[in-house]
Write a structure and sequence with these properties.
With 282 residues, this protein is of the alpha+beta class. Helix content is 19%, strand content 35%. The protein has one domain.
């Protein structure tokens, strides 16, 4: 994941209250997917609804999403031009078409425009967590972090532009409309034409959407169980907590029950850094 893309992911995570975009953007995810986040990759491990695991998921849909929290960084300046209006000096927009000019004043600035956004959540999450602990433990992948996707952000369509410099620029014209706005950049039905594309790290307009944002919870040992495991196996004291459930002894699980040993907890900033990678890794 490039440096500028990392900024987009971090900003979306912050603005949206913990959602991560699938990457590359457009990769589809599903409620109940079981994944590992590692080294700028989302590794698919399975799904809770698979017949081998067979956990029933009830879905709750929220269509009252505030799109403005997702749309752009502060370093974006948007200027619209109506059809028939003379374009500004230096613009490549034609007089006979409506258009829009987007200037960026920072590296890593972004404009994200979703179309028709909603959020699906696991409604019976308490039950799903309990069943997932019991059934996933039998299927735990050795030395894997285990996350389940508990919420997905769904868009009908989208546009995303990420700047590569403080002078990045995008100009888009539209056929058959008197005026356009940033909302139109996500419209797959419009005949949009890119007239200027300067110093952009990533640029997609009028793209089909889907389930392309997600929230996850990860499986960890309860604090007292973590301490007891490390007392039994001191060599594990420097192992990240996310990996510790796979070191539980079968006899301990049989005696105490996995529900009393582990919890699913929301992802953290550390998980975000694991997903996007360090600057030194790029």
């Amino acid at each position: 994941m490039a440096r500028f893309e990392r900024k987009f992911v971090k900003q979306i995570y912050k603005n949206s209250g913990g959602f991560l975009p699938s990457w590359p953007l457009g990769k589809q995810v599903k409620l109940g997917d079981v994944i590992d986040l590692k080294y700028r990759r989302m590794i698919y491990l399975g799904t809770l609804t698979d017949p081998a695991i067979d956990i029933s998921i009830t879905v709750d849909t929220d269509s009252t999403v505030d799109n403005t929290k997702w749309q752009s960084s502060k370093s974006v300046n948007v200027v619209a031009k109506a059809k028939g209006e003379i374009p500004a000096d230096g613009s490549n927009l034609p007089i006979n078409k409506a258009g829009i000019t987007i200037n960026f004043s920072k590296q890593g600035g972004f404009l994200f425009q979703p179309g028709g956004m909603r959020i699906d959540r696991i409604k019976n999450l308490v039950t799903v967590r309990k069943e997932a602990k019991e059934r996933l433990f039998r299927e735990l992948f050795n030395l894997r972090k285990v996350y389940i996707i508990t919420e997905v952000g769904i868009v009908d369509s989208y546009a995303l532009t990420i700047s590569q410099s403080k002078n990045s620029k995008l100009e888009v014209a539209a056929e058959g409309k008197p005026t356009i706005s940033t909302k139109d950049l996500a419209d797959v039905s419009l005949n949009l034409e890119i007239k200027t594309e300067s110093a952009l790290d990533f640029n997609v307009i009028g793209s089909e959407g889907g389930e392309i944002f997600f929230k996850v919870e990860k499986l960890v040992l309860k604090q007292n169980q973590k301490e007891e495991l490390i007392q039994r196996k001191p060599q594990l004291k420097d192992i990240p907590e996310d990996y510790l459930p796979s070191f539980l002894e079968p006899e301990i699980v049989a005696d105490k029950g996995i529900d009393n040993l582990c919890d699913f907890i929301p992802s953290s900033l550390d998980d975000l850094e694991e997903f996007i990678g360090d600057e030194d890794d790029i």
